[in-house]
Amino acid sequence: MKKKPVLYAEAAYALGIAILALGTALMEKADFGMSMVVAPAYLLHLKLVDSLTFFSFGMAEYMLQGVILVLLAIVMRRFKRAYLFSFATAVIYGFTLDAMLVLAAPLPAGGQALRALWYVLGMVVCSLGVAMLMKTYISPEAYELFVKEIAQATGKPIPKVKTAYDCVSCAIAVFMSFVFFGFGHFEGVKLGTILCALVNGTLIGWIFGWLEKCFELRDALPLRRYFV
Q1: How far is CA 58 from the centre of its chain?
Q2: What is the dihedral of CA 207, 208, 213, 215, to 10 degrees?
Q3: Model confidence band, residue 214 (pLDDT cutoffs 50, 70, 90)
């Protein structure tokens, strides 16, 4: 039997953050609507950046994720050390996202076909990033941690919980768009957002299975016990 290549959990964490940030930057470049998970943070950024010029997309991400972690603690009726590490991940991701947005800025985005390419590529890349973060013991972003914790508590498969979470997040983003920009003007939430909400959970499930099939996951460092 052929031995699987090793994917260290710590490498999966670092790659997951970078890949997820890149995918989000590509979707922002496409302007077909952000993924439903990050759309609320993106809308918050768009609403406040005119008056607070320093308020980046990345900053909006880790601020909103802090709120989600508080909600998770309330739902689970306990506060775990992993939630603090999750917020640290959100901050790292926020800075990485702002860097990826700068790197993606020079990419051409003229024409519907090219924009569609960036969007589809971004959606697949984001799904890969999420799947990799879910394969590591290090606390992922609040979005992924929320799904992971609820799936474990209810015994439901992660892809199904992820799809439900995505649909709720999409509805919240639509509501925020209406409140911030009015009924006749959609920002951040477009056709691509709806499409992503419907297929993202399944896509992550496929990639998650592919990672398990093709790689042997190991810890390079004896740190797992600190993230429980």
Answers
A1: 12
A2: 100
A3: confident
Q: What is the pLDDT of residue 129?
A: 92
Average pLDDT on 22-42 reads 88
H-assigned helices in the chain: 9-30, 39-48, 57-76, 81-104, 112-134, 142-154, 158-181, 191-214
Q: Which residues lie across from 172 on neighbouring strands?
A: none
Categorise residue 4: left if φ over 0, alpha if ψ from -120 to 50, beta otherwise: beta
Whether residue 224 is contained in a domain is answered as no
Residue 226 lies in a domain: no
**Angstrom distances, CA of residue 159 to CA of 36, 148, 164, 205:** 15, 10, 9, 5
86: containing domain? 6-219
One-letter amino acid for residue 147 of the chain:
V
What is the C-alpha separation between 208 and 212, in angstroms, rounded? 6
Residue 96 forms part of a structural domain? yes
Q: How many domains does the chain have?
A: 1
